[in-house]
Amino acid sequence: MKTHKSMLYTAGIAGLLLTLGGCASPGEPPDSELQSAESSLQQAVAADAREFEPVLLNNAQNKVADAKKLIEQEKYSQAERLLEQAAVDAQLASARSDTAKAKHAVEEINSNIESLRQQINPDQ
Amino acid sequence: MNKRNITLGMAMGLSVVLAGCASTPQENAMVDEARASYAKIKDDPDVARSGDRQLRSARDELTRAESLLEEGEDTSRIEHAAYLSNRHAQIASEQAERARLQKQIDSAEERRRTLMLDKRSGEAARAQKEAEMLRKRMEELQAERTDRGMVLTLGDVLFDLNKADLKPSGEQTVGRLAEFMREYEDRRVRVEGYTDSTGAESYNQTLSERRAQSVSDALVSQGINRNRVETKGFGEQYPVTSNDTSTGRQQNRRVEIVISDKEGKIETR
Questions:
Q1: What does the domain layout of chain A look like in residue ranges?
Q2: Pick from B13, B77, B115: CB nearest A14
Q3: What's A2-120's CATH class?
Q4: Domain extents in chain B
Q5: Torsions phi, psi of B212, nearest 5?
Q6: Is residue B85's pLDDT more than 50?
């Protein structure tokens, strides 16, 4: 009986290990993902995402904060996904902010050209 | 007995596996979205030029999402890959847009530079034209260039002997000057009276002042603001020629009108 019980137990563990192996990568905390998400966030802030894409930037920041909590709870694979998403969210925020600034620059230079043209040819 | 229990245990474990990973339908909205995002940009030359790295990541994640979907993997894994793919596609598209805008900025910058040059040469041409106009108008006034600036001399003939009233012909000359001053609003004038050396010095001093004043009054009566006109009597000082002959004396009896520069400054004697 004793052996039967322990065999059952072992088989159960084996099954559980399969579960873990199938759905999640256990083990290492996602340090490099954390680093890359944080540096993407910094770049987004530097690209003035706070002004141009505040919602997307906030989302990314929240994801990093949530991921840190998950890391404390050793839920690494969930944390890793959040961090990967945070990184692309932040990169998109940067890219959109850059585009917005470029649009402003186009408008500015065009109005500049228009006023120059009017100074040269006031009748037109 | 043993074997049965082992099998049972394995089955339990496997069922957990299946429950954990879940069987997925072959359709997933997020994968569809990622596919559409990728399809939209994959043939965009601006994306190829400026967002190639992100485009590649979008494709790789999309492939991953599709194969996970194919294998019936966990929805959250599939959707995670789809999410990343979609974001990479969006970033690539922004980078392409940014590059297009940069092209516009560059060509606009070029246009602006050309216009600046046009403007500067236009301004130079206009300034030259204005200077030319001014010179012509001064010529019409018969003003002469002197150390003190442009000076217009009203001869003795504009006044009666020992009188300060301007004769009609003098009025005409003053009229031309008034017209000039209306056109060039930043110019001011100083009207200077001079006499010959005949008679008492104090009398001549007063006469020169009164004659200058009467020219000034004529200008004001033609609508020139009084603060643009100064007067000064020099009496017998600064003869232009000898007082020994009557022609000389006649030349010395005069009113000079000194025209200011365009800042309104007039050189004093």
A1: 2-120
A2: B13
A3: mainly alpha
A4: 23-127, 142-259
A5: -60, -45
A6: yes
Whether A82 and A36 have beta carbons less than 8 Å apart is answered as: no
CB contact under 8 A, B20 and A113: no
pLDDT tens-digit map of B173-225:
888 899 999 989 999 999 999 999 998 999 999 999 999 999 999 999 999 99
- In the numeric block, the tokens 């906030």 are attached to A58
Q: What is the pLDDT of residue B244?
A: 92
- Partner-chain contact A91 B87, CB within 8 Å: yes
For residue B93, the tally of other CB atoms under 10 A from its CB is: 23
Q: What ipTM describes this predicted complex?
A: 0.77
- Which positions in chain A touch B80 (Cβ < 8 Å)? 81, 84-85
The pair of structure tokens assigned to A96 is 């959109």
CATH topology of domain B142-259: 60s Ribosomal Protein L30; Chain: A; (3.30.1330)
Q: Give contacts of A91 with chain B, Cβ < 8 Å.
A: 87, 91
Say if the Cβ atoms of B104 and A106 lie within 8 Å.
yes
Whether B146 has a pLDDT exceeding 80, the answer reads: yes
Cβ atoms of A11 and B13 within 8 Å: the answer is yes
Yes or no: say if B3 and B10 are a contact pair by the CB < 8 Å rule.
no
Predicted confidence (pLDDT) at residue A34 exceeds the cutoff of 70? yes
The average pLDDT across A59-78 equals: 96
Q: Which chain B residue lies closest to A17 (C-alpha atoms)?
A: B13
* Contacting residues for B225 by C-beta, under 8 A, at least 6 apart: none
pTM metric for this prediction: 0.59
Which residues of chain A lie closer than 8 angstroms to B119, CB-CB? 116, 119-120
* Interchain CB distance below 8 Å, B115 and A22: no
